Amino acid sequence: MLIDNHGRPINYLRLAVTDRCNLRCFYCMPEEGIQYLPKPHLLSYEEMIRLCTILAEMGINKVRITGGEPFVRRDIIPFLWKLSEIEGIQKINITTNGVLTAPLVPELKKIGISSVNLSLDSLDRQRFFEITRRDEFPKVWATLEALLEHDIPVKINTVVMAGKNDEDILSMVELARNQNVSLRFIEEMPFNGEGLRPEQMEFWSYKRIIDLIRSVHPELYKVQDEPNSTSYNYHIPNFKGTVGVIAAFSRTFCGTCNRIRVTPTGSFRTCLYDDGVFNVRDFMRQKLSDEEIKNLIYEALQNRAKDGFEAENRRTSVVSESMTTIGG
């Protein structure tokens, strides 16, 4: 098992397979002027399978596939099949915006995908368009219906933004009344391609979100969180689903973090807020052996920041990149 320098077991990889996305959510990326990387700059599927095999041998047993939007990358389904065959990988989860996902849900069920995180910031079609800059709500809703029909556990991720979708919080909660979904409201972060920080704007903290929900549902009560959970989870009596909040900017969950990240270009990150420790793509292409790569990973985890604030302070530049380039 991988253990970092703070005694935290590491068993979870977040792997971004592309920096491309078919939405333009303003809290994640600018509307125009995005310079997508040429394909040779990205990790190939073969390189990703090799990396996941190495990490599985080191104790990683859970992989989350992210982007960008993972399903805009061609041949993603054959890659997921190969990933599912790696010895030691017990869970494969996917984060998607749902625009292209609905027709693929039956195949995801066959592969054995453990759960899907569906990004959905509003149930109002016009507000969805204003946030994403694309009129794709019907396709995302079709994905939610397909996931529920095929009994794939669904977590709905909603980034809460003042003046944009805060009026949707309570209507999103209603989704959990009759559907077995996990709603997670996420604090807005500065990974928007422009460096704008939550403290520079009206900010919906995780506490403020829960206070609003409790004002309408005073019977809301805390439930036991899963080990290493990034969300604080709650239940409302007679609701089928659950409600949670993720303190992504407050960073209150860092003490139990079991995650490492690899960006589409192979940048190895021990924290969302750091700016990369080394580039595993480059080392693979320099013909380093599996054992040499394992040593690099181990050494990186022995110099891991205590939390997201320390990781941000270590950066050589301010947080300004788009979330699409680092894998969410």
Describe the structure.
The protein has 328 residues and is α/β, with parallel strands linked by helices. It has one domain (2-325): Aldolase class I (TIM Barrel), CATH 3.20.20. It has ten helices and 14 strands. It has helices at residues 45-58, 76-84, 105-111, 125-132, 137-149, 169-178, 206-216, 280-285, 290-301, 308-314, and strands spanning 2-3, 9-10, 12-16, 62-66, 91-96, 115-119, 154-160, 182-187, 221-222, 231-235, 242-246, 259-262, 267-269, 278-279. It has a twelve-stranded mixed beta sheet. The longest helix is centred in the N-terminal third of the chain and has 14 residues, at 45-58. It is globular. The two termini are 25 Å apart. 41% of the residues are buried. The model has no long low-confidence stretch (mean pLDDT 92).
Quickly describe the structure.
The chain has helices at 45-58, 76-84, 105-111, 125-132, 137-149, 169-178, 206-216, 280-285, 290-301, 308-314; strands at 2-3, 9-10, 12-16, 62-66, 91-96, 115-119, 154-160, 182-187, 221-222, 231-235, 242-246, 259-262, 267-269, 278-279. With 328 residues, it is of the alpha/beta class. The strands form 2 sheets. The protein has a 12-stranded mixed β-sheet with strand order 9-10-11-8-7-6-5-4-3-12-13-14.
Which key terms come to mind for this protein?
single chain, 328 residues, alpha/beta, TIM Barrel, 12-stranded mixed sheet, two-stranded antiparallel sheet, 30% helix
**How many DSSP-defined strands?**
14
Low-confidence residue ranges: none
Rounded Rg = 19 Å
User: Topology as H/E string?
Assistant: EEEHEHEHEHHEHEHEEEEEEHHH
CATH class: Alpha Beta
Quick one: CATH superfamily?
Aldolase class I
Strand content: 15-25%
Number of alpha- plus pi-helical segments = 10
Helix content: 25-40%
Q: Shape from CA axes?
A: globular
InterPro entries: Aldolase_TIM (IPR013785), Elp3/MiaA/NifB-like_rSAM (IPR006638), MoaA (IPR013483), MoaA-like (IPR040064), MoaA_NifB_PqqE_Fe-S-bd_CS (IPR000385), MoaA_twitch (IPR010505), MoCo_biosynth_MoaA/MoaC (IPR050105), rSAM (IPR007197)
Domain Radical SAM core: 5-219
EC number: 4.1.99.22
Organism: Emticicia aquatica
